[in-house]
Amino acid sequence: MPRIILHPDQPFSLDQTLGCGQVFRWDRGSDGWWCGIVGNRVIRCRQEGTTLVFEGADEAFIRHYFSLDLDLEKILDAIDRDPFIHGAIERCRGLRLVRQPPWECLCSYICATNSNIPMIRRRIATIAQQFGDEVRCGKMAYFSFPDPAKLSCSGGNADLAICKLGYRTPYVFNTACDVAAKKEWAEEIAALPYEDARRQMMKFSGIGPKAADCVLLFAFQKYESFPVDVWIRRIMRDHYITTLSNDSALTGWEYDTIRRFARKHFGEYSGYAQEYLYAAREG
Question: How many other CB atoms sit within 10 Å of the CB of residue 176?
Fold first, then answer.
């Protein structure tokens, strides 16, 4: 079985990376093996100390997907600006941001609005089962995430209704239509500076500030992106910006205040800081 020997000075934690909430189609078995589907690949992997064992993809794909080509120690040194983030780094060291397929990531974060992770996972799995292609791995059947054309040409909201997306149904359909009609959408967004890419991303139906920042961070490697949810606002209020309110609703002003503070405080890799703060949270 193929394996990658990890460099001691370049930390990697498979459990932290796949268990932190950034991806929705991976599962960890009791034997320590993670199994997930990326594109049309069913991938299994397990970490044994400094060795990453895997099957279902070649080494180049695994290195790219798990961002093993990045100098993580350099990134962590850059964001290690205060005792609180230092504690999060020590607790979650080795967490890396994976490079997610842009369309699947975009659709996933439309499905993620006002939802918990189990519900998001169910919605994404249902979309794949209804519209994706079956991919066999031994006796197990998995489903690839469907191309946007399969959703936009499916007959509209009526066909998507079976996926139980609720009010998100027309958002998924309309965005699938837009993406299917513009084949180079991902390349165009990738080429834009972060703020321009963010404005362009929010033109998609169902994509607000947080979803835009998540997609830019996880699918486009815009590492200055700093998604803000109730957990991040609580952390930032308690440890960084004490003037933030205690109101349950996150206002646009607060969102922009937090993300701009984070960019200035943590630097160009503030998105990595966000994920470490989120992964190390207590609650």
Answer: 27
The pLDDT of residue 154 is above 70: no
Pair 228, 210: CB distance under 8 Å: yes
Question: Which residues touch 49 (CB under 8 Å, ≥6 apart)?
Answer: none
From the CB of residue 164, how many other CB atoms can be counted at a distance below 10 Å?
Answer: 12
Burial of 137 (0-12, 13-18, 19+ CB in 10 A): middle
83, containing H or E segment = helix 83-92
Alpha carbons 134 and 144: distance in angstroms, whole number? 7
Which positions ≥6 away from 43 have C-beta within 8 Å? 35, 36, 37, 54, 55, 56, 57, 62
96 vs 73: CA distance, rounded Å: 11
The H or E element that residue 210 is part of is helix 209-218
pLDDT in tens, 33-80: 999 999 989 999 999 999 999 999 999 999 999 999 999 999 999 999
d(C-alpha 167, C-alpha 161), whole Å:
10
Please tell me the predicted confidence (pLDDT) of residue 139: 73
For the residues of 87-138, what is the DSSP string, one character each?
A: HHHHHHTT-------HHHHHHHHHHTTT--HHHHHHHHHHHHHHHS-EEEET
Which residue has 């993670």 as its token pair?
Answer: 34
pLDDT in tens, 94-151: 999 999 999 999 999 999 988 888 999 999 999 999 999 998 777 778 899 999 998 8
Please state whether 67 falls in left (phi above 0), alpha (psi between -120 and 50) or beta: left
Q: How far apart are CA 219 and CA 225, in angstroms?
A: 11
Closest CA to 22 of 76, 67, 60: 67
